[in-house]
Fold each of these.
Amino acid sequence: MELDSNCHSVFLLYYHLVLVVKYRRNVIDDTISEFAKDMFVRIGVPYHITLVQWNHDKDHVHIMFKTHPK
């Protein structure tokens, strides 16, 4: 287990986020999932968010990421 650090602290923050489609409709396919994943990575760069794992099904997406405390 590798700990992260900044100037005054040592930390290890992992978040598990589940995004669900309204009414659990089956609309997520590989193309939509890849687009959402690319957007997540692009938006996360200035916030020091690192994508650890990305999984999807037809009606939801599981995201595990780590970040700096702010």
Amino acid sequence: MQRMKSIARSYVYWPNNDAEIEDFVRKCSRCAAAAKAPVKTTLSSWPIPVEPWTRLHLDYAGPIQEKFFLVIVDAHSKWPEIFAVNNSTASTTVSKLRECFARFGCPVSVVTDNGTQFDSELFAKFCRELGIEHIKTPPFHPQSNGQAERFVDTLKRALLKIGSEDIDAALQTFLQAYRYTPNAVLPDNKSPAEALLGRKVRIVFDLMTKSTPETPLINQRQNEQQTWSQETHVCGRRGSLR
């Protein structure tokens, strides 16, 4: 509900837009079916890192449609990375983490539960090689890894709401919406993309606003190239006359 209102405010306005969006979500049968239970106790939050991609929270979701989902959440920017895999073994986990770290770099620490893939010697060796501190939550207390646990719950409910048979397409739809939607937890209601990448990312809703400055820049470069070509031609003629 909050994300729908946030992204709507960024592009359009109509009278009573907040109330109508709230009413629309309350009447959504899929949203009601996927709603989570009230929180039993107040949880203590992890400290927020000063810089992005410093502490990552990892967990697995699934199986959903015979797929497991490796969930990676940056504690600073709330940017999620999710990999759909056929199994949740340690080798698969390390392989996907290598792929992720090749894009964004190595974090200072990772937080996981005591799953067999995270408690393996292969995963421990992987962390040692990259100089990553591995923090494991206490046994039988998955809520200690609340950042990843909450996102796993968000992922499951989102896939249930989308209700698509193409799980990969549904996953990318969810990731795009989550990454580029303003987040009330972040300073100045930034989106996870802005907090991690330091810039706004162009999405389909930007087609409703003014056009991008790419075309004028291209035209300017073409004019500069034509001017340079003409000047070169004139200089060449003068040299031949001499």
Amino acid sequence: MSKQPGPFRLSVTDLHASVDDPALTSMTLLNELAGRFPDAVSFSAGRPFEGFYDVDDLSRHLATFRGYLEGEKGLGAEQVRRTFFQYGRTKGFIHELIARQLEVDEGLKVDPESIVVTTGCQEAMVLLLRALVRDARDVILAATPNYVGFIGAARVAGAPVRAVREHEGGIDLEDLERQIRAARREGLRPRACYVVPDFANPSGASMSLADRIALLELARRERILVVEDNPYSLFRADGSSLPMLKALDEWRQVIHLGSFAKSAFAGARVGYVIADQPVTAAGAEREEPVLLADLLARLKSMVTLNTSTVAQAVIGGYLLENGCSLKRATAREAGVYRRNLATLLERLGRVFAPVPGSGQDVTWNAPEGGMFVVLTLPFRADDAMLEYSASRFGVLWTPMDHFYGGTSGFHQARLSFSVLTPEQIALGVERLGGLVQDQRARHLPSLTHPRTGRLLEPQGA
């Protein structure tokens, strides 16, 4: 009698490489550690401040949007009911309000039909990358370190990403030009460059106005698109602002990715893409081109069909109640981030004051806004050290190597300050100080600073 086969089992080698990609595990790891160590101070979560959330606001936002449908749009009761409860328009139905917000806050006039409302900005990334990368010769350029969500979207979509250096002023334009030309010499087709011009995640770097203009000039000269992702531009510490790349775009070369995760609330999962580039049919240059947005909507119809109608209605009501101004809507949150950034930088300076001659200083950058600061440590700051930090010292942070795809950043940690109170920030930095003392004591001969009593290393250690 033949032996019956056991339960069906798959091998990971039978599946797409992205399901087992180490670069896509960072969020899972951080969530798991936060669950295991709930009392730890967490500098790891890049979430928006939640102290102003009120569940009762949701029903009010819905009612506001209903009033907009009935009054401004002139819909009857049955049409309103269908709008809320049925499948929605694939490109979304708050596109006109998004266009109004962009004009109010940015002075940017866009055709509402060039906007596709997506299920979070993450879906916009996947749809766009899927559309731009036709075969293995097509590559996307992006500054490194890079947002893990974009790294993951590129790997899920099968889009090769070519790294470009980043400095304090954002993406290195000289290196971008070198990488474009090197890719072409290798027979590749550089299609687009992904950038976060204001307070990039994770580095906090921002581009000057001159560099924004120079980037667009470079992109036009090299015939590539610019993919702009700019969720932190509202949170400049001094209250000033620089124009978004799309507002400087005279030639329709910028595709803008937008999100309400950091401005309204992340749970709505509402984002959008502005894709106003004309696309001609193959061999039909004389025919009227269609918008890239319409082609992205075709892809979306086979992925999520449409973005949640209820979530769109809530965001629509939120916009209407704030005069379609996200600057007005997020003024309180911007004040929190400004206070928290100042607190974090002050506490870092107090706990990790440089000591001449030690050779082992802890250093950090000082961004002018956003939600993140990068700490450079005199020891390896990887996943194993993160777990040790959580279990022994009660403090969480994000290893920067996740933002390099596991190739660099092994002595750096991203600190997110958006959801913490000043007291939690102070406690968390003190705990980080304990971790640094612990590592110095374990691995290096110790000296004692005469003023603070903290452990130091001798010169050259």
